[in-house]
């Protein structure tokens, strides 16, 4: 199913996408299976052809992995990406996000971290949420795009 060309077309048709933590991990840690997909994504962000949003929870998740691995260089890269990447907005988990996440949890049964990610993307105006967690398809708030469908 899918392929890089189909994923790229989805990106070309979108104005704003929400990003799950794994999109950053796959890209900046050069995942062999998903690297071409995330390259298509991040190159569009850098060129300004696409905007993306994520929550501050994503920074926590990517930094945790880098720090557990003792990779301070990668941790610094992640900090810079979240602060400086063009066309990326990072939403705080505020009361509006928490309230919407609660509704997402009730509607879909998702865990709190996943519901917060979906809520942040919805509040950020995302048309799709890019993840590799098929369980997030339970949410009806936003179109969930699973990277595994494109490899």
Please render the helix and strand layout as text.
Elements: H1 4-13, E1 16-19, H2 21-28, H3 35-47, E2 51-55, H4 56-68, H5 72-84, E3 88-91, H6 95-108, H7 112-123, E4 128-131, E5 143-146
Parallel strand pairs: 1-2, 1-4, 2-3, 4-5
Q: What order do the SSEs take from the amino end to the carboxyl end, as H and E?
A: HEHHEHHEHHEE
What radius of gyration results from the CA coordinates?
Answer: 14 Å
| CATH 2nd-level architecture | 3-Layer(aba) Sandwich
Fraction of residues in helix: 40-55%
CATH class type:
Alpha Beta
Instruction: Assess the beta-strand content as a share of residues.
Output: 5-15%
For the secondary structure, the number of strands is 5
**How many distinct folded domains?**
1
End-to-end separation in angstroms reads 7 Å
Key traits:
151 residues, Rossmann fold, five-stranded parallel β-sheet
């Amino acid at each position: 199913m899918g392929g890089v060309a189909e994923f790229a077309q989805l990106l070309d048709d979108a104005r704003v996408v929400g990003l799950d933590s794994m999109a950053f991990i796959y890209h900046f840690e050069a995942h062999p299976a998903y690297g071409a997909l995330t390259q298509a994504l991040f190159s569009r962000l850098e060129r300004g052809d696409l905007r993306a949003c994520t929550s501050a929870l994503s920074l926590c998740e990517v930094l945790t992995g880098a720090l557990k691995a003792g990779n301070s260089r990668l941790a610094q890269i992640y900090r810079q990406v979240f602060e400086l990447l063009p066309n990326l907005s990072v939403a705080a988990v505020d009361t509006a996000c928490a309230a919407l996440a609660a509704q997402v949890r009730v509607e879909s049964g998702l865990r709190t971290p996943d519901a917060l990610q979906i809520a942040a993307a919805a509040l950020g105006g995302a048309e799709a949420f890019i993840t590799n967690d098929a369980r997030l398809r339970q949410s009806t708030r936003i179109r969930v795009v699973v990277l595994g469908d494109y490899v």
